[in-house]
Amino acid sequence: MNVFWYMCAPDGPYPWKPEGSRTVDFGYYKQLAMAYDHLGYTGALFATGAHDVWPLAGALLPYAERMKFLLAFHPGLIAPTLLAKMAATMQEFSNGRILLNVVSGDAKMLGAYGMTLPHDERYLMADEYLTVWHRLMAGETVTQKGRYFETVGARLALPVGSTIAPPPLWFGGSSEAAIDVAARHVDTYLSWGETPDEMGRKIEQVRARAAHYGRELSYGIRLYVIVRETDAKAWEAAADLFGHMDEAAIAANQRFVSNTDSVGQQRMSRLHGGVKPENPRDLEIYPNLWAGIGLVRPGPGTAIVGSPDTVIRTLEAYQAVGVETFILSGMPLLEEAYRFGELVLPRLDLSRPEAAAAPKAPARTYTWSTLFDRDLSGNRIDG
Ligand SMILES: Cc1cc2nc3c(=O)[nH]c(=O)nc-3n(C[C@H](O)[C@H](O)[C@H](O)COP(=O)(O)O)c2cc1C
Asked: Residue 363's pLDDT is what?
């Protein structure tokens, strides 16, 4: 199992409103990177957001020795050759810890960057874009005249394909056109947090399309998690978030998501319908899966809510339908990374990347009584 945590502004206890948001600057990102690395997460998802992922990830590399960096990009905004060069550089500097998340955004957002292709055509363009990517990553010299890009004599100077492994491609997109591109080009297909049943159906659909191209993918899901010592306390924490969701914030989010061309977003929005019920548990759409976050947050809108046992059981329900990777987050990112990292992560069978230079002494935890042990009594803290 892979468990990633999330790395993107905004953040805070209630990040949908100014008084619930905290400053997210480089100092804070450094704390996040060091915390995720220390806690043993497989990696972090750098989503497209206020800060650009490339300078951010480059600046954070020295603060995270083990974790992987999953970097989102929109196909078509820069030349495929430049993207491949940037990714290869990061792959070299990180000792092979880069993964790329191929995301096709939505028309409103992409228009700001001059990308005005309609929804399905964006995926035709992505198909062409990724074809150039794969050829460059195979060490080829690429001259290719397509419908969207003309690439002339492109070749990466870095030894990708021999000493530098091509960064794996991950992918988010739920439309038919998206699934076809995923099936042809990527290694891991991601979904926002649908129920295990829906996720199982989606996986079957992607699996069948990939098989058509003679390929096999792995699967991941992006969820919030609200974990506390008991189920009751976890639902109290969900109710606290719910209590802070004012009508103005819900209306603002509804306006933002209502005319999107993203099928993934439409699927998330349907889970709550944009209406705040009396009781937060009315949005429990599957045992321990709560759609309340989506009222105020575009994109991933569901949370697993419960005790560590409940959370693990729910993760297992997703594993049972073929999910290997979980991209999780809580609010605030830092505190909840610790909470999940201490309550749940140690109980999971995680593929944890090793540090480039493994620590000499075995890592251990300390309690007050550890320090009373005979062998350690020289370390007593009396102050
Ligand atoms: C796990 C995951 C992460 C995503 N991250 C981003 C992101 O960082 N930036 C973005 O613009 N879209 C992101 N998306 C949204 C996809 O771009 C989205 O599904 C897109 O709107 C494609 O539309 P479609 O579902 O209609 O194919 C993400 C989707 C998933 C499933």
From this structure: 66
